[in-house]
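For the sake of transparency, this paper describes our internal protein records without simplification. The remainder of this section carries one protein's record, kept here as part of the documentation:
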Amino acid sequence: MSSSESYVADVLVIGSEGAGLRAAIESCDKGARTTLVSKGRIGKSGATMLAGADITLDGKSAGKIGLAGNEDDSPEKFFRDIVIQGYYVNNQRLVQAYVRDAPARTKEMIDWGMKYVWDGKRAVISQGIDINRVLVDQIRKRSITVMEDVYITDLLTEGSTVVGAFGLDIKRGIFVVLRSKAVVIATGGWQRAYSFTTAPEGLAGDLHAAAFRAGADLLNMEMVTFCPNAILWPPAFRGDIFPYLLVEIFGDMLDKHAQPYLREYDQRIFKIATTTEWNKLIFSIASTQVVQTGNGSPRGGTYYSLKTVPSNIIDEGERLFPGWKWLKMDYSDLIKWLREGNAVEVAPAAHYMEGGIRVNEFGETTLRGLYAAGECSGGLFGANRVASAITQILVQGAIAGASASEYAKSSKMKEASQEQVRSIEARVTEPFKRKTGIRPIELLKRIRKTADEHLWVIRDGKGLKIAITEIGSIRSELPRIMIQTEPRRCNREWIDAMQIESLVTVLEASARGALMRRESRGVHYRSDNPQTDNDEWLKEIIVRQVGGRPILKTRPVTVTKVKLPKGKFGFEEGIVRAVKALGE
């Protein structure tokens, strides 16, 4: 048995970018002994760091916190816009909290020294790097215990109460047992189930899976947003979303015949796609359809081109990206290449998860003592995220941190049984004992192939059934995983082996939810059920583990202010109807 170390805190926060940092700050400020655990370096090991970030709030409230306000806007309008554009399956209590707290969280970040530009409407524009800088600086000013390079594999429980977590100190190769009165999960999404993604390493759904094994519910896992114009080629920029930012200003999306395929759409849809945040889902579906009809690029995408854009207009674009630099990346050579008449290959990339761990407006999960915040939680944005995920992490992080701290004050420290700890340790070290079997990389390739082929932008029932069968086959191989790298310190192969189980768990939940939802709604598009069905599917899909197996059920959407519509209509007509409703 490997050596292990034990630690104690009132509140344990798992995840150290936006949501986790903000949760730890709030927990500490509310008087709880707080420990923050990060798989890597704090502020440098998650998705927030890579965000070209904006913080959204309604224009009227912006005026009240010292920005140039927009009196034509209001919290009520902002709330309504989020629900309508989320295709009405948002938990409206979560949306209320988002809209209510956005101004305070925005002012707080400005007061703490965040660099920003106000767009005069709804967005305080900054960068993820600077947001993390500000939050990490606040962490350093407080008595918060920080544990870096610790990979949490499991939650510890006593009955249906979470009492801590079990993890691996990556650099030392030893286990850590963290006892706490409350736990906050703030670990982002699970984009790494896909081969092409905008997300950094590590977003593998580890804590989704850990919470699920412990008894927490997952929610709306079928809802996945793809960023439509990530670079496929040239390889130096693979996965970069710069063309997505540019196409909102100028440029064309082309098929292999150099035809601008978006212009074939209903002009109402084309206008929506090029002027609103609906662009992610519309562009992604349109480009995938081009590829499916055999008119895509050689590497399975489409093209982005500046050939039709006058040179002086391109020069104007540099005002938004001085020196053609963004997030410390230099795109001047890429722009030069595009100006010469070349095109880059682009394709949808897994970008954001609307679904996740089920929470209420206080950040509480379905397990006592367990909270979740940010992208790892589900329900806020329904079927289509249009407002800022940065606002989400700040608002939900603060709420979860406060709730966890208050819970800890009235709770006694409990301890998981040694039997539970030994069982987890035995499970995660088992691959070292095998001399023959299957390498983690082989299963990872199968997982990503399954996600890419059957849980991509456009799905259908036949493909989803194939995915579920293949995921079951991969799960049956888990007891055969072997690790050839013997040293336990900084053992990437070992971490991959543990993440395989997490990826299988979240991907199965997503596939089963996508098969169950027999309609097209927001980012969930089924070619065999292309209608949006408000009569049957204004529901959330809950996934729960029962007897070691995922069981699915539905529950009605939580409604507070915006009434739910009725009727069935085609997907494009649904977009037009929604935009019309926004203007009413």
Remarks:
- The chain has a mean pLDDT of 93.
- DSSP finds 17 helices and 25 strands in the chain.
- The two ends are 65 Å apart (CA to CA).
- The first helix runs from residue 18 to 29.
